[in-house]
Write a structure and sequence with these properties.
The chain is an alpha/beta fold. The protein has a single domain, classed as EAL domain (TIM Barrel, Alpha-Beta Barrel). 47% of the residues lie in helices and 21% in strands. It is built from ten helices and ten strands. It has an eight-stranded mixed barrel, surrounded by four helices. Strands 3-4 form a two-stranded antiparallel sheet. α2 packs parallel to α3 (87-99). The radius of gyration is 17 Å and the shape is globular. The two termini are 26 Å apart.
Length: 237
């Protein structure tokens, strides 16, 4: 099933997007986190039908919200690095996107540094192709790798998502300076800055004062089913 976590405009406080997050509710074991079943699905090839299902489900849900009168927002989905390793796999994803008539600005694809490292050349071609379709590209979990700055130069990113590890340590002066430098760099490159893992009002206030564009985290809402997102829409629009 898909859960959704809202993304909040840090100036207006409005919901401007949601990230679709897959959850597996096993009848015997209950909810199994993606960190446990996604690696297995990549090894076995099941990641392909899973990715196809997530894309279809997420876009369908977004359009269902719009049919109920809620304003248009951006839907963010995560793509596994496995998608970039085989041309046929990526072609399958593109075929789905084309069949759903994705409008510019409607969909955001999030990829991690680890994902693009798997097949950098292919990732570059694939991400450029997605961008040509009007899809926004986000670097997810920025700051968890070693070569992120280089990827910002060579890959067509629109959005920079700062990892929660940065956000949790903003009381550290050195970490604060690094954060401010990253935001300044991102904005100079024309990127939108999203902070992940916001949990306290102090973190939120710091991020607002330091030019963060969009926030995401338990301070605003944990990932919730679609009907819970509708309640947030009613409060925020």
């Amino acid at each position: 099933m898909l859960y959704y976590q809202p993304q909040i405009d840090m100036v207006t406080g409005r919901v401007v997007g949601v990230e679709a997050l897959i959850r597996w509710n096993n009848p015997q074991k209950g909810f199994i986190p993606p960190a446990e079943f996604i690696p297995y699905s990549e090894q076995t090839g099941y990641i392909i039908p899973i990715s196809e299902w997530v894309l279809k489900k997420a876009i369908t849900q977004k359009r269902d919200w719009e049919s109920k009168g809620y304003p248009q927002i951006k839907m963010a989905v995560n793509l596994s690095g496995y998608i970039f390793t085989e041309d046929s796999t990526f072609d399958s994803i593109c075929s789905i996107l084309n069949s759903m008539n994705i409008k510019p600005g409607e969909l955001e694809v999030e990829v991690t540094e680890t994902a693009v490292m798997m097949e950098l050349d292919k990732a570059q071609i694939s991400l450029n192709e997605l961008k040509a379709m009007g899809i926004s590209i986000a670097m997810d979990d920025f700051g968890t790798g070693y070569s992120s700055l280089n990827y910002l130069q060579i890959l067509p990113f629109d959005i920079l998502k700062i990892d929660r590890g940065f956000i949790q340590n903003l009381t550290n002066k050195k970490q604060t300076y690094i954060y401010q430098t990253v935001v300044e760099l991102a904005h100079s490159l024309g990127l939108i800055v999203v902070a992940e893992g916001i949990e306290t009002v102090e973190q939120k206030d710091f991020l607002i004062m330091n030019s963060c564009d969009i926030g995401q985290g338990y301070y605003f809402s944990k990932p919730v089913p679609a009907f819970e997102i509708e309640k947030l829409f009613e409060k925020n629009f």
